[in-house]
């Protein structure tokens, strides 16, 4: 089921990649492409396999992106239509929004919700939460002995 | 027989990179020779990552790169991979996250530590994924990666309270994915906002749940570096859920319903 979600995400992966690449609107950064020639670029943001946009901006390259909002045509997927919208400012994509998502989303939402942290009731705390591992701020080896993870390892030791 | 039918959990603990690494295995290979060999492979992979990436070892590839004694082309290929991840994170976070920091004397230093841990553990865990009918859960210095084959028996991950690390603030079930937390509870202020060079304000801890530990770890650090903007930024990241704890102890739960997560936006 989670695969369905992942599959969908890959269908908009280019958009997502662009999103990941170009959200730095605060522009304290110099031109990213020029800062560090030693660092390889995993994907060029110029390849727009995004759905054709109603505003039909030039797809020649990031530098040629026109400012404004562009809504892609709905793309049919096995799970229903997907439509996205991008916002461009100063030649950069500053936002990617999903305008329309497959209607079978209640299930997906439930799957997603399942991976959401649940706050522990303080009154239950004293009895100890039934957990296997702990995620927390980086514990160093010296701090480990004091840590909860250490307690768990010992508690579960055969 | 599936992994779920074996209830016995076998645990291992070792230290590498100055961090404790804990492993829990259950199912077919928990406690057998294949399970132990996989654990040795995990540790060997992490020691290898330490040799390449440690900023504490003067002879590591990263230290030599930093001193200009090594070019990226001549460095092991995983260095380029990690630096590319760092660059993506820097762009995605508007520069709050960076693999570069400034010395007190102003010199620019290479420090990809914010990327290396999650990436290295995820790479090392390939040996565990290869164990058939076996559930694994590995925790390295507060970052957790796990797989449970039976959806009804997820690993249960506790999220530490940054204001009282002996308490658990929340729990999250883990079936195939990762939980990473960035905060100041154990080591003090070691994450800075790369735009200002100062520790972020108004945030005590950020926890990110995501299928990839590499990105859960990066996003937790990148969100934490943004201080009060952590939750707002994380909401915009695809496929992440999590928790942001403010300095005053107030908690924001991120349920994944950000602008990209199926919301109807018109």
TrEMBL record, chain A:
- Region annotation (Disordered) ranges: 27-67
Q: Where is the FMN-binding domain?
A: 77-155
Which Pfam families does the UniProt entry name for this protein? FMN_bind
* Comp. bias intervals (Low complexity): 35-64
Q: What is this protein called?
A: FMN-binding protein
Q: Which organism is it from?
A: Actinomycetospora chlora
The major lineage groups are: Bacteria, Bacillati, Actinomycetota, Actinomycetes, Pseudonocardiales
UniProtKB/TrEMBL annotation, chain B:
Classify the source by domain of life: Bacteria
State the InterPro entries in the record: ApbE (IPR024932), ApbE-like_sf (IPR003374)
PANTHER family to which the protein is assigned, alphabetical: FAD:PROTEIN FMN TRANSFERASE, THIAMINE BIOSYNTHESIS LIPOPROTEIN APBE
Species the sequence originates in: Actinomycetospora chlora
According to the UniProt entry, what is the EC number of this protein? 2.7.1.180
Q: Which reaction does it catalyse?
A: L-threonyl-[protein] + FAD = FMN-L-threonyl-[protein] + AMP + H(+)
Molecular functions per Gene Ontology: transferase activity
Does the keyword Metal-binding feature in the UniProt annotation?
yes
Report the protein name in the record: FAD:protein FMN transferase
Keywords from the named record: FAD, Flavoprotein, Magnesium, Metal-binding, Transferase
Presence of the UniProt keyword Metal-binding in the record: yes
Matching entries from Gene3D superfamilies are given as: ApbE-like domains
UniProt cross-references to Pfam families, sorted A to Z: ApbE (PF02424)
EC primary class? transferase
Q: What are the names of the required cofactors?
A: Mg(2+)
């Amino acid at each position: 089921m989670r695969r369905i979600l992942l599959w969908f995400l890959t269908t908009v992966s280019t958009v997502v990649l662009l999103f990941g690449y170009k959200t730095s609107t605060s522009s304290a950064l110099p031109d990213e492409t020029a800062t560090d020639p030693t660092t390889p670029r995993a994907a060029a943001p110029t390849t727009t396999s995004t759905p054709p946009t109603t505003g039909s901006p030039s797809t020649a390259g990031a530098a040629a992106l026109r400012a404004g909002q562009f809504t892609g045509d709905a793309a049919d997927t096995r799970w229903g239509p997907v439509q996205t919208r991008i916002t461009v400012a100063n030649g950069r994509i500053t936002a990617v929004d999903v305008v329309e998502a497959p209607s079978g989303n209640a299930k997906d939402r439930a799957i997603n919700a399942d991976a959401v942290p649940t706050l522990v009731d303080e009154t239950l705390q004293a009895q100890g939460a039934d957990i296997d591992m702990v995620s927390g701020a980086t514990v160093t080896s010296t701090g480990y002995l004091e840590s909860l993870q250490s307690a768990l390892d010992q508690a579960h030791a055969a | 027989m599936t992994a779920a039918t074996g209830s016995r959990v076998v645990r291992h603990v070792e230290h590498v990179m100055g961090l404790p690494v804990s492993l829990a295995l259950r199912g077919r290979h928990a406690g057998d020779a294949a399970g132990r060999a996989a654990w040795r492979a995990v540790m060997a992979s992490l020691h290898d990552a330490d040799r390449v990436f440690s900023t504490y070892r003067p002879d590591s590839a990263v230290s030599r790169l930093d001193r200009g004694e090594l070019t990226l082309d001549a460095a092991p290929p995983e260095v380029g991979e990690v630096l590319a991840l760092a660059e993506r994170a820097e762009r995605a976070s508007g520069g709050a996250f960076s693999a570069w920091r400034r010395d007190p004397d102003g010199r620019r230093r290479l420090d990809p530590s914010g990327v290396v841990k999650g990436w290295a553990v995820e790479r090392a865990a390939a040996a565990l994924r290869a164990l058939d009918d076996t559930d694994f859960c590995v925790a390295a210095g507060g970052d957790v990666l796990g797989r449970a084959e039976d959806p009804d028996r997820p690993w249960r991950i506790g999220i530490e309270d940054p204001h009282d690390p002996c308490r658990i603030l929340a729990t999250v079930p883990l079936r195939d994915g990762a939980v990473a937390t960035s905060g100041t509870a154990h080591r003090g202020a070691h994450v800075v906002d790369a735009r200002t060079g100062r520790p972020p304000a108004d945030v005590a801890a950020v926890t990110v749940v995501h299928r990839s530990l590499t990105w859960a770890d990066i996003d937790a650090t990148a969100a934490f570096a943004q201080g009060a903007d952590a939750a707002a930024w994380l909401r915009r990241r695809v496929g992440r859920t999590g928790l942001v704890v403010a300095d005053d102890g107030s908690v924001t739960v991120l349920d994944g319903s950000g602008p990209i997560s199926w919301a109807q936006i018109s």
